Amino acid sequence: MMPSNHSVYEYVVYDSDTEQQFAQKFEDNASIKCYAKLPGWFRIPTPLGSYNPDWALLVEKDDETKLYFVVETKANLKTTRTSEADKIRCGKKAVEAMGTAAKFEAVDDYNEFMEKI
């Protein structure tokens, strides 16, 4: 657990070293206006079973504010189990199907994520 100034909560509880690193970088980045570690009950239904993404964040970049409804952080996406990778793909499609401006990104590198957005 770490204290937070930019999360919707006073403290951020993380599940892994990778999540801790992302949370710290969210805290240190002025472009990240607000973020939340999504609770276990937050699930996206998919044909392969429900899926619990890691984060939601509000990013301001190039004078534009974007909601990244869910951001999935895995230590190494290339070695993610096939069933988990399939759920990630389904989660991305589910967010797209909502028809909102929210984005879904599966990332294992913070800098790569910031370049994508």
Describe the protein.
There is one protein chain. The chain has one domain. The protein contains three helices and six strands. It has helices at 17-28, 82-97, 110-116, and strands spanning 2-3, 11-12, 32-37, 55-61, 64-73, 104-107. The protein has a four-stranded mixed beta sheet with strand order 3-4-5-6. Helices cover 30% and strands 26% of the residues. With 117 residues, it is an alpha+beta fold. It is globular.
Uncertain regions: pLDDT < 50 for 5+ in a row?
A: none
Major sheet: order of its strands? 3-4-5-6
Structural class: alpha+beta
Count of helices? 3
> DSSP strand (E) fraction?
25-35%
Number of strands: 6
**What is the count of distinct domains?**
1
Helix content: 25-40%
- Average pLDDT, to the nearest integer? 84
Largest sheet: 4 strands, mixed
Kindly, what is the distance between the CA atoms of the first and last residues, rounded to a whole number of angstroms? 27 Å
Quaternary status of these chains? single chain
Give, in order, the helices and strands.
Answer: EEHEEEHEH
Note the topology.
Elements: E1 2-3, E2 11-12, H1 17-28, E3 32-37, E4 55-61, E5 64-73, H2 82-97, E6 104-107, H3 110-116
Parallel strand pairs: 5-6
Antiparallel strand pairs: 1-2, 3-4, 4-5
Kindly summarize this structure in a few lines.
The chain is 30% helix and 26% strand.
Summarize this structure as a short list of keywords or feature phrases:
117 residues; alpha+beta; four-stranded mixed β-sheet; 6 strands; 30% helix; globular
